[in-house]
Amino acid sequence: MGGLAKILKESGHIVSGADINFYPPMSNYIETIGIEMIKGYEKDSMPKADLYVIGNALSRGNECVEEILEKKLPYTSGPELLGKELKGRKVYAISGTHGKTSTSYMLAHIFSSQNKDIGYLIGGISKDFKDPAHLGTDPIFVIEADEYDSAFFDKRSKFIHYSPNNLVINNIEFDHADIFENIEDIKKQFHHLIKIIPKSGNIIYFKDNENTYDLINKGTWCEKIEINSDLISINLDKKILKVDQTEYSLKDLPLIGEHNFKNYVCAILAAKLGGVNINESVKSLKNHKGVKRRMDLVYKSNKLDIYDDFAHHPTAIHMSCKGIKTQSPDKKILGIIELGSNTMSSGYHKENLLSSYKLLDKVFVLDPNKIYINKNAYDSIDDIIKNVKEIIYEYDIILVMSNKDSQKFIEPLIKYIEKK
């Protein structure tokens, strides 16, 4: 919502926002761009407005929501309002269970390096962009396209509202167990999205992702750019992208891991649709620093290194573990995993989780609901910190994986290390 507020302000609207609490860094950012912040949802503090944008975290019973409905005040969802702002733009939507944020920033970085004042709205914070959102003057708009629902009154996926010209599907796996019953529910939403891509548009996808391939076979009405086809293929070991019999080396690109290689490929192919040749894209990406909390080296000393990673799904956890093990094969690695998402904390991915971190030497799993009962599971942060401290110097690397506040692990460990 902070990024949307920035877009709306740049569009000439007067914007204010309410939440229970505001936390850095987003609170600092919102204050910097001059948006009034109202703490709490008391109806008496709700400002008069021409339109109320209701976030998908709010539902019936919220005092402001009840006031809006009772007085029949005009309201909408964030995705629907953004979609209206994007009318007439050439929208590049980056979707999938994993890699949306990283790929979106890669693509935005490529276009920006071509001196294009593109628009973008991306979750997370990039090391290359000072803002997570920008209206831009160029027709191109890059957006992270989430399959989560739009609002309590609109259960369609957010990405339906963006009307993309070009769609990237990195992968499709089951997630968001709080709103989807199964993988077929998710594929149904993606199929609705594909139905509204114009004939002149494009879909970039991986043929070897079973759920994506099944989705594509349900029907498409635009051009298809299939990775691992006769025309486009990748070599994961040698980091090579092959397009129309021409090979392009991606081995010098900075971000590690098979998942980032695939993200690079998607961004490069999407940029090609916007007129950027592959060599120019590769050259641009050599200077791309990535996204904070995506395998982010947050502490380095002669004793050990600490990485912060947003991995929140067994596949993402496996790819992060594989990436850091490949980079440091001779290092002993200790992992800390928080089951932060609704899907993970429900136990849906139990078996896959247990096999996802096998490459690490030792793992601590924060499991307050006691879903994953095994030797690695702990039900409190304090227990994990205490046990990690006892063995911390037996390891060279600590990898923290959480889609929540990872600092609750990182800060006490850094303090402990620096006291020694």
Topology:
Layout: H1 2-10, E1 16-19, H2 26-32, E2 36-39, E3 52-54, H3 63-70, E4 75-77, H4 78-85, E5 90-95, H5 100-113, E6 119-121, E7 133-134, E8 140-144, E9 149-151, E10 154-157, E11 166-169, H6 183-195, E12 202-206, H7 210-216, E13 223-227, E14 232-235, E15 240-243, E16 246-249, H8 258-273, H9 278-285, E17 296-300, E18 305-309, H10 314-327, E19 333-338, H11 342-345, H12 350-356, E20 362-366, E21 377-378, H13 381-391, E22 397-401, H14 407-419
Parallel strand pairs: 1-2, 3-4, 5-8, 5-11, 6-8, 11-12, 12-13, 18-22, 19-20, 19-22, 20-21
Antiparallel strand pairs: 6-7, 9-10, 14-15, 15-16, 17-18
Helix pairs in contact: 5-8, 5-9, 6-7, 8-9, 10-12, 13-14
Describe this structure in words.
The protein is built from 14 helices and 22 strands. The chain is an alpha/beta fold. The chain has helices spanning 2-10, 26-32, 63-70, 78-85, 100-113, 183-195, 210-216, 258-273, 278-285, 314-327, 342-345, 350-356, 381-391, 407-419, and strands at residues 16-19, 36-39, 52-54, 75-77, 90-95, 119-121, 133-134, 140-144, 149-151, 154-157, 166-169, 202-206, 223-227, 232-235, 240-243, 246-249, 296-300, 305-309, 333-338, 362-366, 377-378, 397-401. It is globular, with a radius of gyration of 22 Å. The protein is 33% helix and 22% strand. The two termini are 42 Å apart. A seven-stranded mixed β-sheet has the order 7-6-8-5-11-12-13, sandwiched between helices. The mean pLDDT is 91. Strand 15 (240-243) and strand 16 (246-249) form a beta hairpin. The chain has three domains: 2-73, NAD(P)-binding Rossmann-like Domain (Rossmann fold, 3-Layer(aba) Sandwich); 80-285, Mur-like, catalytic domain (UDP-N-acetylmuramoyl-L-alanine:D-glutamate ligase, 3-Layer(aba) Sandwich), CATH 3.40.1190; 296-419, Alpha-Beta Complex (Protein-Tyrosine Phosphatase, Chain A).
